[in-house]
Amino acid sequence: MNFIFFHITAASYLIATVIYIVYLFxxxxxxxxxxxxxxxxxxxxxxxxxISRGIEAGHFPFTNLHESLSIxxxxxxxxxxxxxxxxxxxxxxxxxxxxxxxxxITASLLPKEIVPLxxxxxxxxxxxxxxLAILGNAFFALSFLFGIMYLxxxxxxxxxxxxxxxxxxxxxxxxxELGYKFLTYGxxxxxxxxxxxxxxxxxxxxxxxxxxxxxxxxxxxxxxxxALLHGRLTVGWRGRKAAIYAIIGFMVLLxxxxxxxxxxxxxxxxxx
Length: 272
What we know:
Number of helices: 8
Order of helices and strands: HHHHHHHH
Shape: flat
């Protein structure tokens, strides 16, 4: 049953993405309202997909790469819906929906079989560490998208050719502030996820830190985001530099996550 809802979810994300693209060209408020409604419906279908898979599996479904990407996509859309309710940034959906669809398409290409939990995962730490890590990544994804939007808006201003997305995107100051805000949400979650992961590692393997590939890249990602936050607070990194740094940080995070899990490197290899 969860596979049926998965395909319905992917199809509805595709429809939402197409309508958002139409909005980018038409600038029609009615079009974007329709896209938002379909995205909300997609999120509900996605929620049903996750719940039904969890019921079939007998545990919360984030124990392989297919499930993790699906949850990641779901959390990104969920965070966006909360952001849009607060800030009403219509154009943001035009970036969120394609990203969510991309992750679902990638998930659809990966093994989907439900398998029993391996002994290492039969712990309550699974339900603390993994959701915190994915939620933190979702906030970083939004910061990444704000960074992209910032660079696009800056390009319009520097070229002195206002048009296209210029009238749909928020001001540079707003984009910069929101990008920073979501970094401050994601960084504590990443930090707590690393701490809980270390505790879980000690519980399972008897060592808080074993220099596994996933641990190393998590630490590298942590330092990248810590450097960005430190730079903003101490030397005033803002604007273009902060946007580029947020984009690089997320690409490193996403790349390490996919490569490590696809290649089954280290003790995190069972999370694939």
